[in-house]
Design a protein that fits this description.
The complex is a heterodimer.
Chain A (H helix, E strand, L loop, with lengths): L2 E12 L2 E12 L3 E5 L6 H8 L7 E6 L2 E2 L4 H7 E5 L10 H11 L4 H15 L14 H12 L6 E5 L7 H16 L3 E5 L3 H6 L2 E6 L2 E6 L1 H5 L9 E7 L3 H10 L3 E7 L2 E7 L3 H7 L4 E4 L4 H16 L1
Helix pairs in contact in A: 3-4, 3-5, 4-5, 5-6
Chain B lengths: L7 H14 L1 H21 L7 E7 L4 H12 L3 E6 L3 H9 L5 E5 L3 H7 L6 E4 L4 H23 L21 H32 L1 H6 L5 H29 L9 H25 L3 H10 L1 H6 L12 H7 L3 H15 L3 H30 L2
Parallel strand pairs in B: 1-2, 1-3
Antiparallel strand pairs in B: 3-4
Helix pairs in contact in B: 1-9, 2-7, 2-9, 7-9, 7-10, 7-11, 7-14, 9-10, 9-15, 10-14, 10-15, 14-15
The chains are: A alpha/beta, B mainly alpha.
Chain lengths: 309, 371
Amino acid sequence: MTAVIAADRLTIRFGSFTAVNDVSFAIAKGEVFGFLGPNGSGKTTIIKALCGLLVPTQGTGRILGMDIRKDAAEIKRHVGYMSQKFGLYEDLTVAENIEFYAGVYGIRGSAAEQRKQEVLALTGIEHYLKRRASQLSGGWKQRLALACAIIHSPEVVFLDEPTAGIDPVARRALWDLIFRLSAQGVTFFVTTHYMDEAERCGRVGYIYLSKLVALGTVAELQRLPEANPAGTLRIQIETSNPSTMLDPVRRIPGVREATIFGRAIHALVDETHVASLRSELPGAQVRSIQPSLEDVFVTLTYRIMEAQR
Amino acid sequence: MKHLFYGLIPVCRKEFLHIVRDSGTLVFALLLPMLQLFLFGFAVDTNVRQIPTVVFDESHTQESRQLLQSFANSDVFQLNSAAVSKEQMYEAMRSGKAGVGIRVPYDYARLLQDGTTATVLVLVDGSDSTVAGQAVSTSTGVTLKESLARVLPGGRIPIEVRPSVLYNPATRSANFFVPGLVAILLQVMTILLIALSLVRERERGTLEQLTMTPVAPLGLMVGKMIPYGVLAFFELCAILFVMRVVFLVPIRGSVIELLAMSLPFLLTVLGLGLVISTKARTQAEAFQLSMGTILPSVFLSGYIFLIENMPPIFQAIAHVIPATYYIRILRGIILRGAGLRELWLNAAVLTLMGCGAILLAARQFVRQRMT
């Protein structure tokens, strides 16, 4: 596997603050890579570094084999970027926005027109050509932003929280688009806070306090020993009233974590205490489950927080 | 070269679209300076005429009346009130009813006839320095002339000064102030527009998006300068037109040279606007910083006060203010009919400043992108 996006012991410091600490990963062509982590954990900084905007303090990164330290200008021509701010000119029309970005990527004349038609067809925004960007709904703005971000047919696309504040239908439309493009060989690097989106990704990385603490497929992460500490069991407690039961469950000895999922409580319990837990909750159905991705990240985060204390 | 200015043309085209779309900006850009021009152009008149003057004539003689008549004839004083006591005269001054007070002593005529020196008191309200200066010099002149006429037999004065004011024969204030005003108005408008345009992009996140594209910093900067430069150039033409037609300020030099030598100034203020935009995080901040450039440009550029009269430190500051050089160009061409041959150095300094500002802005821009 030749990596399309590769970070090798990437470290970025701003003064005494370490924004990215010794992060390594490799992403293959056509992969959709999900990148998760709390705000301020270094997600955007890594994207900026990989796009050649920041020179890493230590370590290296490669995009399509190009060194992010030396080939920044060339990397930009092969990389698309969309942030949650979208980067659209609200007073310009849909067509003018697309034409502008085609221009800044140096696409001119008939090539520009052809490419414009392609992204319009892909995003389905052709009916709004003459409309100002300010008059579009959030979902359509996002599609326009994506159309602008891929106008130069990039092989690699970075999406920085692309679905923040977007309705579910528009979110799904975006993901459909992402997978259609990835099937064509475009590699995606997507940051998100939504677990359901992370679960759609082929592989997921979790960054916490500037460090990459987990990396793998969703199934791999669910089986991580750190997320399933020895001697513990993850259980689902189905009860008629989970919200009033949450605090009592948390007080039961041997319960390490407990949180509500829909109409049930998910808990991480010491194996030795499962029997006593069942007896404490006579009416409830208790069964063993796989941890969800959120469970994995929460457990990992707690472990790090405890280790730091 | 192409690499250095990459993205210039699309940025330039987009910026023109912004200007055309945003009618508010257009109105602000074109109408507001015009309005200010009318306001300042009509309001500012530093020629001192008809100062209200209170007279306390204790002498009441033919000689005293003759002296007072000379004061009245000067056109500077308007002898419109008479006081009957010293207190009344001071009261008129203090209340501001009179700007000048003249007291002729009771023994004025007798002292003149005796051949000794008669003293006439002229009080001047110093709260307005222009008025005071004019009153002092005119009253000295009037009495000196009176004295000479008395001393010399036949009343013939041996030397007569015939001052002839070149380049502004009527000493019209408009001729002096309006050309300088062109520089100030142009500067305020241009700096503000370009600074806001860049900071707006920063606020809306489009600047972040642009940094991810191959657009070069200089391509972005110069691409923004061209549309606003064109706008400012139109504004300059409009201001000059109003100056010529409404304020009747004649342009003695070549209009072409005037417009050509305005370009370096536009370059400088556009560059300055870009520097400001790299320092400002929000549009409000950009607005404040832009406004901050007005005061030094008004007071230290020679627009109002003579640079040569300033303390050395302020003279030094005056020489780094772009408006200083442009006002020299404006006054030189408009009032004195000078041209490129006499004024090229000013244009050269402005060009250097402009290029420096653009490079500084581009460097700042690249640095900020890193964080």
